[in-house]
Amino acid sequence: xxxxxxxxxxxxxxxxxxxxxxxxxxxxxxxxxxxxxxxxxxxxxxxxxxxxxxxxxxxxxxxxxxxxxxxxxxxxxxxxxxxxxxxxxxxxxxxxxxxxxxxxxxxxxxxxxxxxxxxxxxxxxxxxxxxxxxxxxxxxxxxxxxxxxxxxxxxxxxxxxxxxxxxxxxxxxxxxxxxxxxxxxxxxxxxxxxxxxxxxxxxxxxxxxxxxxxxxxxxxxxxxxxxxxxxxxxxxxxxxxxxxxxxxxxxxxxxxxxxxxxxxxxxxxxxxxxxxxxxxxxxxxxxxxxxxxxxxxxxxxxxxxxxxxxxxxxxx
Length: 316
Prior knowledge:
Shape: globular
Structural class: alpha/beta
CATH architecture of the largest domain: 3-Layer(aba) Sandwich
Largest sheet: 8 strands, mixed
CATH class of the largest domain: Alpha Beta
Helix content: 25-40%
CATH topology of the largest domain: Rossmann fold
Order of helices and strands: EEEHEEHEHHHEHEHEEHHEEH
Strand order of the largest sheet: 6-7-8-3-9-10-12-11
């Protein structure tokens, strides 16, 4: 079997708080192959964005490994990590605050190339214009500023900046959540086209299950810092084993009148505390199937080939 492009091994990120350790990312194991997309879904505060930032080393991991072509990049020094960032880039959620308002569009896109000194002189403008064309940005915007563009074009600028160093892996942190539906479709289709052309690997973080179903090859469902279910896209939408995943997918709106009487899965109870959490299932306080056994530590187990679930009921 080929080595995954990027892989996390027992990755953890804890934050110190006055009340104890906040387990933002806790024992996460994921694999992403070249040319594929891993979708990360879950409610706000579950650790999706922190996972992406930790993999990019924008924040330091507490423990675990991030393997790029089999090498643990968490052991890299600053110089080695600077070189590694030519292979790994990130598209941020807010297409306005992620762009420097004092820099023109041309300066924003060329900035990564200036940092690593891989393009110089007159070639710089040519390369920037190529990236603008690739991302659907008219060249007349070269000397404009972020506040002069709408949200969709600003996000295209963020994408062009991410592509400037020809990366192999891009973390897409809710890149379309702030955009209108029609603009969302344009950006998603652009991402998929670029993936096909360049063989890019994406980690696509989103709340929108319809979007993740459209773009992903694999999907990981997170809850309070942990991956609770992980499977291929079609398998996950066909068979859900964790009660949280069942509730998430049941909440997807539908126009199919034949499904208007489908069973509803309303979550009740209090969300667990991510600060110094107990060793048991973190979803137990909201799960109607919870038993005493749920107070024991839960592991991510393979219940069918390629389908992993963190729930003892599913495993049994």
